[in-house]
Amino acid sequence: MKCLLNQDIQKPKPKKSLFKIFFITFLLFFILTGGLSSAAMLVAYKKIDIGNPELQKKIEYTVLSIPFLPKTPEYVLGKSVKAHKNITTAYINASFAAESPYIGGLGIVSGNKLDFLVEGPIDYSNPKNPKSSLTIKLGNDFDSNTMFLDNVFYFKLNKVPSVVSVFTGIKPSVMQSKIYNKWVSYDLSPLETNARDMLDKETTQKEDDLSKAYSEVIDKVLSENLVPSLKMSEDFLDSQKEYKINLNLNKEQIDTLQKNVLADLSNKGYPQNNYTTQPFDKMDLTIWINKTTYYLKRVSINTEINLDNQYTPTGVLGFSTTKYLENIPESKNSTIKLAFVIDLSKVGESQNIVKPEDSQEFDSFLETIMNESSLFLGNTTNLNTSSKIVENIALAGNLYYGENSKYPEKVEDLYEYMAPLSMNEGVNIKNTNAYSMVTYTTKKDMYQENNKYYYTILSTKGVKDSGKYYTEQELKALVGTADFDNTLKISEQKQPNLLDQ
């Protein structure tokens, strides 16, 4: 009996051993899973490189999708890209500001500041029929509306600089009554043909291939070059807390970035242009992303461009006239400060874009301008000549401003700059080992004094004269009869002086 009682007393011991085994197993499992979690965390935050970028990215997205874990800039950007993948509508507010002594010389606005604004809804739900309705403002002097709908482009002028009246010959009162606040339409619809359809498909395929290549290259460059420099915080934008990602690059970093992108594109079979040093001295980029939807809220860029001889205003705008003259020097070096800000709202929402109730066709609009302009006087044959006059006067003014940092006080000051800009046959450019010369032939009855109707700018051994008028005999003595007969005399029977048209 006593033995049986002892056996009964000893029965609970196995239960205690089972509990101990269960506890140890649970502890080991906890340590193991905790270790794996820690390892996954280290991989997600790039503290450990597992040598497989694709797997590492999957681990990162899986781990960082947990709500309470802090996010990395790369994760937030990746989520934003995915969020926008199927987004085709938004309301955009894009502003641009520039400041530089060069701006006044461009002839667009007065002073050294330029402000530009584009605002309105866009809808790319149907790639074959994109829609937009935008307000465009340039400073306080230009205001217009544009719309693109059903392959028809509409525009409406609300305000233009007063100098336009001078160049067009249209009185401000006429601009107000017949030009302003009237919609104009221009049909851009292509012909629906099999050939057009085939060409569109081929073009679309090439664009898709190039877009894919760019996407892969940018993703690679972003991971290798930019991610280490990204800084992320949380800040308020429009009274709402958002993700804020900053990237600051200096000239050397921008240079390296451009080289890497071009090299990677070249490796993918796309032709690489000859690399030239880009003009940006610095670039500060800030991106705001919504914490809930991951939609892009704002992108801002602050940068500076250093203009050397390669990036003069005439070079940037594509004016190549100065290359013909050794005696018109390039403008001095300067810096242009630039700022871009793009705000997105109503992302993914339906946009109300409706065509204007009343609009006139472009031909009718052009006819109104020609009938009201004192330049045309109702004669359509003067259109090309008059527009060329306006263009050349503007370009000559830009060149004068670039060299003298001020506008000319009288039209005669522009003659030297007008000569190389003329596109008619009244201008002749002659280069020999002895001299570089530009001669601009005027009408015989324009300068009666001693028949001096050959305006010539001469540069000998790098020394330029101020430009003056010569008679036929004087110019022959200066450049030689052969040169005169071969290159100058011909112009006498060609186009007259553009200022005298």
Helix content: 25-40%
Strand order of the largest sheet: 7-8-9-10-11-1-2-3-4-5-6-12
Question: From the alpha-carbon coordinates, what is the Rg to the nearest angstrom?
Answer: 35 Å
Overall structural domain count: 3
Note the main sheet.
12 strands, mixed
Low-confidence stretches: 26-45, 309-333, 378-386, 422-429, 443-448, 489-501
Content-based structural category: alpha+beta
Strand content: 25-35%
Mean pLDDT: 69
Termini separation: 138 Å
Large-scale geometry: globular
The count of DSSP E runs of length 2 or more, i.e. the number of strands, is 17
Tally of alpha and pi helices: 15
Description:
It is a single chain. By secondary structure, the chain is an alpha+beta fold. It folds into 3 domains: 2-70; 89-345, no CATH class; 381-500, no CATH class. The protein has 15 helices and 17 strands. Strands 7-8-9-10-11-1-2-3-4-5-6-12 form a 12-stranded mixed beta sheet. α2 (13-44) crosses α3 (53-64), α8 crosses α9 and α14 crosses α15. The radius of gyration is 35 Å and the shape is globular. Keywords: Membrane, Transmembrane, Transmembrane helix. The chain crosses the membrane at residues 21-45.
What is the strand and helix layout of this fold?
Elements: H1 2-10, H2 13-44, H3 53-64, H4 73-83, E1 89-99, H5 101-105, E2 113-123, E3 131-138, E4 142-149, E5 152-159, H6 163-168, H7 172-179, E6 184-187, H8 194-226, E7 231-237, E8 240-250, H9 251-267, E9 280-290, E10 296-307, H10 313-316, E11 334-345, E12 360-361, H11 362-372, H12 383-404, H13 415-418, E13 427-431, E14 435-441, E15 454-460, E16 463-464, E17 468-470, H14 472-479, H15 481-488
